[in-house]
Amino acid sequence: MTSGRRLFEREVEVRLLHGLVDRAAAGTGGIVLIEAAPGLGKSSLLADVVEYATEAGLGVLRAAGHELEGDYGWGVVRALFDPTLRRMPAEARSEVLDGPARAAATALSVGPEDPRAAQDPSAIVPALYWLTVNLTESRGHLMVVDDAHWADEPSLRLLVYLAARVESLPLAMVVATRPGEGPALLLDHLARRVPEVVTLAPLSAAASVRLVEDELANLQPALRDRCVELGAGVPLYLVEIVRALADGTEWTEGTIGRGLAAARRSLSHLLRPRLAALSPSGRAVADAIAVLESEVTVPVVAGVAGVDVATVLDALDELDRAELVSSASLTFKHPLLRDVVYGLFGTQRRADAHRRCAQLLAAGRAPVERVCGHLLLVVPGTDAEVRRLLTSGAESAMSKGAPRSAIS
Ligand SMILES: Nc1ncnc2c1ncn2[C@@H]1O[C@H](COP(=O)(O)OP(=O)(O)OP(=O)(O)O)[C@@H](O)[C@H]1O
Ligand SMILES: [Mg+2]
Q: How far apart are the CA of 18 and the centre of ligand 1, in A?
């Protein structure tokens, strides 16, 4: 495992991946796709299967897509094959790159370029397949591709091609990807060719408690439970929260808040590409739900987002697939996700959005305190209507015997 951390509640997935490696070692290949949102443990599972395959004596070809390198042709293919080819004696290298594999060198940094392949790029993927055949002839291999959503498209084409032919090779392929990111068409093609798509569930509360206790043995139970609640079963959040607490001598609600802020920062970084990949209406609907926060309804979301109801419904499907929003409950799948989306608003946009919420909620006769809740987040003193609504809200709160909300 990358971090040496115990893997909780992944016994079924680990058994499946070890079985895939065992079968490849015995001559029958296969492919497993792991599809899960950030931080649920894809890379950790890949690290485990690499360790298992290495101990079993298989060769390992491994690569990962990188956020800024998706446009860089053949980056993943190079990372997969170059190190193994470089380690080979020159003569053996020429042999595996010979015959039908010759055009493969065009995509790699080793071996001579084949001038014919430059004229016919479609020859490269089949040639890379033949290179894989040649490499796996003498011993079984594990091929691991992490973060396939960031992989360059030519390399993804090879994965699709291999997936359709892997059974006849002593090759175990494991590909990890986040849902809703990356070139949808190619990743869909890949998923269709894969009999086994593994999704990862959040950890149970019991496993979350054990993860927290593994890291911070002396945490008071009440604070430990607060970490577990905030982590919502996502190992990454739990680890980030606990990590931020690990250097504090005293653990209080305040230091937990620090942990949460650190988790939010790392999540914000993870989330940006997922938000950038959304359609404009998907992003507008996510923003509207972040601003509305609670008791959200489709018509109000439509009003705040400035789109019609049918568009909201399509956008909700998109946001559900991207693991951001539950389309059934119209809430973010994790409170930290909402915080991050909301945190990306500038001051003026945030004020405008809250003003629109207040107007729509008022028009729909929502409780006036709720309307006021939004109005208080609009820059005060700029808008006569804001003041008028605030005053009537305060009057209503007073008349209902809630003076604290009337003056705060
Ligand atoms: N089942 C688990 N039990 C305990 N810790 C875990 C588990 N899964 C993951 N972790 C820890 O959670 C953190 C995030 O895991 P990992 O990096 O594997 O997630 P990921 O799905 O690859 O995320 P990303 O989409 O960002 O690449 C790591 O520190 C890892 O050690
Ligand atoms: Mg990862």
A: 19
Q: How many Å apart are CA 197 and CA 36, to the nearest integer?
A: 10
Tell me phi and psi for residue 54, to 5 degrees.
-65, -45
CATH superfamily, domain 11-199, is P-loop containing nucleotide triphosphate hydrolases (3.40.50.300)
Q: CA dist 69 to 149, 182, 349, Å?
A: 11, 12, 32
Of ligand 1's listed atoms, the one at least distance from the Cα of 5 is: 31
Predicted confidence band of residue 4 (pLDDT cuts 50, 70, 90)? low
**What is the rounded average pLDDT of the residues 166-171?**
96
Contact 49, 17 (CB under 8 A): yes
Predicted structure pTM score? 0.74
Q: What are phi and psi of 73, to 5 degrees?
A: -60, 135
Kindly indicate the confidence band of residue 364, based on its pLDDT and cuts at 50, 70 and 90: confident
Q: Which two tokens stand for residue 392?
A: 């009537």
Q: Which atom of ligand 1 lies nearest, measured to the CA of 203?
A: 1
Tokens found for residue 167: 């059974």
Average pLDDT of the residues in 116-132: 83
Residue nearest to atom 23 of ligand 1 (CA): 39
The Cα 35–Cα 9 span in angstroms is: 16
In ligand 1, which atom is closest to the CA atom of 2?
31
**How far is residue 247's CA from residue 143's CA, in Å, rounded to a whole number?**
38
Given a contact cutoff of 8 angstroms between Cβ atoms, the answer to whether 33 and 197 are in contact is: yes
CA 63 to CA 151: how far, in whole Å?
9
Q: Has residue 381 got a pLDDT over 90? A: no
How many Å lie between the centroid of ligand 1 and the Cα of residue 148? 16
Under a CB-based contact definition with an 8 Å cutoff, are residues 201 and 342 in contact? Answer: no
39 CB near ligand 1 (under 6 Å): yes
Ligand 1 atom nearest residue 235's Cα: 12
Side chain identity, residue 59: G
Q: Is the CB of 40 under 6 A from ligand 1?
A: yes
Query: For the chain, what are the domain ranges?
Result: 11-199, 205-275, 277-407
**Tens digits of residue pLDDT in 69-101:** 666 788 899 999 999 999 999 999 999 999 999
Dist. CA 314–CA 10, nearest whole Å:
33
In angstroms, what is the span from residue 57 Cα to ligand 1's centroid? Answer: 26
